[in-house]
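Hello K.,

You asked for the raw outputs rather than the summary table, so here they are, unedited. I folded two proteins back to back in the same session to keep the settings identical. This is the first:
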Amino acid sequence: MSAEISADSAAVGTPSRMKTALKATEGKFFAHPLALVDTESIGERTRIWAFAHVMGGARVGSDCNIGEHAFIESGAVVGNHVIIKNGVSVWTGICVEDNVFLGPHCVLTNDLSPRANVKKDPVHTLIRANASIGANATILCGVTIGQCAMVGAAAVVLRSVPDYGLVVGNPGRQIGWICVCATRLQFSLQLTPGARCACYKCGRSFVAVEHETAGVQVKEERN
């Protein structure tokens, strides 16, 4: 059953362009009346706050939180349980998998050599499940941020980050490895295949394994 929602209250919304009022449909996503939502491809229980804009052709999963002044462009893909903090833009060609955290005002790009009058296909970037990007970090397009990786605040990432990698600085450099629970792992930076480590906080176990193309990588051991 539909109902008109006043402009000064949050609402559960069907896709529409939000201005001073919003039609609400129970069981859909939450959208602030001052958000602009131009796509039907938004999962249940996702929350979209004031002045955020989700363009037509974008896809957003369930249980996401999209902060104020965020922008999701046509062709961008956002998974489930993703947190997009204030001032973050997710451009065409960017894929954000499940449970990713995008910190306030972090910068994602899709063009390595932009010109205002030169049109090119977007360069794709992949942010894998459970990764975290810190506030004001910049991610150069064309890279992959690995599963459960963490990029520190204000880092400038110029190359791909491995699963569980911890990267800081400008230019970004890997300084270690990090657990799913965001605790730094007691692995050396230069891994030896077969080395093992347990997170002292949550008890998860990890092992260093040889990868065909990426060298030695960290992998969680599961019972």
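The second followed immediately with the same parameters:
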Amino acid sequence: MAGSGGTLSPSGGVQGGSAPLANRPIPSTMPAMTDFAPWKVLSTRSALRDRWIDVTADAVRDARGNLLDPFYTFAYPDWVQVVALTEDDRIVLVRQYRHGARARTLELPAGAMDPADASPLDTAARELREETGFVASELRLAASLHPNTATHRNRCHTVLALGARRMADTAHEAGEDIVVDTPPLAEVLAGLPSGLLPQAMHVSALVLALASAGRLDLSLRG
């Protein structure tokens, strides 16, 4: 990595001798690409609903006529994750216990959008300030993706926060036993393959945010 403001380059590349995926012939056992029609919803019922989650059980018929009953999907508020960089090229991270993983994990500051939030930028500013005490001089929406297209009905927004500085007191909610860490950005990138950030969505968020900032080159190497 070059100094602050330089370009970072991932170490991956195309294996020698392999044709690009788009140019490879389709094996005879692979069906031709087809745009299947959306599934037909025959019935729907609520399996679980509270302040955190809305689980729906649908009876659906797929494009080939197969009946799937029940098929569960999950509605959450949209999520926002913040890639916050300081002027000296450090990244603002949080370490906290995650009961799903049964482990203390290092993560990006993140949270759910409130109904009153006008945009993911509002959510990002609030979550960054409440979880870490940092405030950014500039916020940019880097990407909006689906966390799981098979079952989740919400979206996950990545916000790039530049010029982050510690300027406020934290305001942690119940269940947020958070320690703030600001490691060098280069160290975090180097630790991604070994699981330094174990949250898969946060890894993709970091890559996309750095690419949007012109800090990471996503082009393939020959």
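Residues 38-75 form one domain.

Happy to rerun anything if the numbers look odd on your end.

Regards,
P.
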